[in-house]
Amino acid sequence: MKKWICCCLIMVSGCQSFGSLEQERKPSEPPAQVEQTAPSSEIKEQEELVLEERFWNQIEVQNGVKVIVNPDNVLALVNKEQQLPADYKPTDLVIPNVPFTFKETNVEKRHMRAEAAKALEAMFVAAKNQQIILYAVSGYRSYERQQQLFASEVQRLGGEKAVVAVAMPGKSEHQTGLAMDITSPSVQYAITPAFGETAEGKWVAQHAHEFGFIIRYPKGKEHITKYQYEPWHLRYVGVKAAKVIYEKQITLEEYFQIVKKI
Questions:
Q1: Average pLDDT over the chain, rounded to an integer
Q2: What element of type H or E holds 113?
């Protein structure tokens, strides 16, 4: 009788051990599936970071200066090293239907290129729907107007400080017609770094890319842009590029370093 009980115990124990082996083997299958999907997601990301040749600057050196000869490019990289032709003026300038901080109507700073103006209107509407009130301050600016502003800033601050606060003529994004300075009542309609700390400034920083805009001169990137932090300065680059720049928290200069020309 005792021998029969021992046999039964051995059989039961054997079944439990076999079942444990089966359970240990099953979890080994999912890692294989993860390894199969990872490369495809990496390839997808690489495929997204390509940019057609037409969106890259075409540069000619004129009198020792790098001049952008395709300034109508919506992704034109305008900075201290590459400038626009002195006579460049966009042909599709319009006045966006948004509130401005001034009453004058027949002034160039009300204008933007049509594509950028439409995007700005959409952004202002979306902001207002969330009780975020924004005002436009300054859009398109001609080469001649930039000359006046820069000279005035040099006189006020001195040359060394002026060059990090105001672009030299030809090197201002405002001349592209793709930039707009904005503000809000919470900072008394001023152009100030404090705008970035307001509810309006934070909303813009988080949502501008959804409409194709970027904060062109972000905080912590002054060594790259060569300009001070400007939370008010929006630059239109299109939704695709703006999304990458926002998600990677990079500048337009850095964007061109990571995209591949095709």
A1: 87
A2: strand 112-113
Amino acid 164: pLDDT = 87
Q: What are 82's two structure tokens?
A: 């590459």
Q: What is the DSSP string of 10-76?
A: HHHHHHHHHHHHHHHHGGGHHHHHHHHHHHHHHHHHHHHSEE-GGGS--EEEETTEEEES-TT-TT-
Q: Per the structure block, which two tokens stand in for 61? A: 């050196």
In the block, tokens 């932090």 appear at 229
Q: In degrees, to the nearest 5, what angle opens at C-alpha 56 toward C-alphas 50 and 61? A: 150
Q: Which residue has the higher pLDDT, 38 or 132?
A: 132
Phi-psi region of 30 (alpha: psi -120 to 50; beta: other; left: phi over 0): alpha
Q: What local confidence, expressed as pLDDT, does residue 41 receive? A: 43
Decide: helix, strand or coil at residue 1.
coil
Q: Which residues are catalytic?
A: 230
DSSP 3-state percent helix, strand, coil across the chain (nearest 5) = 50, 15, 35
CA–centroid distance for 56 within its chain: 16
> pLDDT tens digits, residue range 141-171?
999 999 999 999 999 989 989 988 899 999 9
CA–CA dist 136, 259 (Å, integer): 31
pLDDT in tens, 81-110: 999 999 999 999 999 999 999 999 989 999
